Amino acid sequence: MSSHPFQIVSTLRYDPALPNVVTQRGAKSSPDPLNTPYYLLPYHQDRLRNAARYFHWDSALKFLEQDFTQFVRYLDTFIPDKGRPWRVRLVVDDTGDCKVEADPAARIELENFVVPFIISPVSTPWRVYVDTAPTTPSGLTTHKTTARGDYAAARTRLGIASPQDSADVLLVNPNGEIMEGSITTPYFRRREQTEQNEPEWVTPPLSSGGNAGTSRRYALAQDFCREQVITAADLIDGEICLLSNGVRGFILGRVVLNRKA
User: Fold this and answer.
1) How far apart are CA 145 and CA 195, in angstroms?
2) Which fold has domain 126-255?
3) Where is this region: Disordered (predicted)?
4) Which DSSP state fits 167?
5) Is the pTM of this model over 0.90?
6) 231 beta partners
7) Does residue 79 sit in helix, strand or coil?
8) Is 145 helix (H, G, I), strand (E, B) or coil?
9) 218 CB contacts (<8 Å, ≥6 apart)?
10) Domains of the chain by residue range
């Protein structure tokens, strides 16, 4: 656990067009987490609550347990223009103080935010690297916080200089299991034969040490994927994968093991 002060964090997309798009694609989970312009907001609120409980931040938990409608009203006061998309970052400290940062977000095809995700034939895949050093799982990897040293180090090792780079690095625990991406949740095609109606995609279980991501929770709730331990040794150079997070939705990726190729 970090010896320095840190906050719990969740980052998501605000987009006024989201509710119109998602009503065309039925949700299997109830209540529907996509019924506001804030992408998967109920899951973000839950994630922050779970982190506050884990760290025993009672004041933060009291703030986060407010009614969902009340929470939306609070966030609305930080959106400068409700007619355009925003990247919204919620930062909560142990006293229950919540800072909300809203920055302009690039326009993205909103179909990328719902599953089943359809891979566009013109998509340019993100480069997906595997970290060259292990990361030890802890509360700071299970819960998203401002203590991002392990993630920053992994990105530096693989030469990813900017959050705008179309690349991510997969963190690996000391047992060689994929935990998560530095800014995304990864999904891989199942290796074994799938039965009819079974998901063809798998994502690492939380027991491997990665973050309880909101888009990950959504993909599992929609039966888009199931959990399965994936090791770095299981990955194949050049294989297609998917990535997701609360700001960009679902993204096509390609595993890069041979960086000289």
Assistant:
1) 38
2) D-amino Acid Aminotransferase; Chain A, domain 2 (3.20.10)
3) 193-213
4) E
5) yes
6) 177
7) coil
8) strand
9) 29, 33, 34, 40, 43, 115
10) 8-110, 126-255
Kindly state the tokens that stand for 20: 């119109």
Single-letter code of the amino acid located at 139 = G
61 neighbors 52 (Cβ within 8 angstroms): yes
Hey, what are 207's tokens? 């027991």
Q: How far apart are CA 151 and CA 131, in angstroms?
A: 10
Tens place of pLDDT per residue across the chain (261 aa)? 555 799 999 999 999 999 887 666 656 665 678 889 999 999 999 999 999 999 999 999 999 999 999 999 999 999 999 999 999 999 999 999 999 999 999 888 888 899 877 777 677 999 999 999 999 999 999 999 999 999 999 999 999 998 889 999 999 999 999 999 999 999 999 877 767 778 889 999 999 999 999 999 999 999 999 999 999 999 999 999 999 999 999 999 999 998 754
**Strands, DSSP E only, in 34-166?**
86-92, 98-104, 126-130
For residue 85 the two structure tokens come to 């998309």
Q: Which CATH number fits domain 8-110: 3.30.470, 3.40.390, 3.40.50, 2.60.40?
A: 3.30.470
Q: How far apart are CA 128 and CA 151, in angstroms?
A: 14
Structure tokens at 192: 């074994």
Retrieve residue 43's tokens. Answer: 């899951």
Structure tokens at 187: 């999904």
Distance CA 170, CA 162 (A): 16
Pair 171, 180: CB distance under 8 Å: yes
Please give the Cα distance from 52 to 92 (Å, whole number). Answer: 9
Q: What is the DSSP letter of 233?
A: G
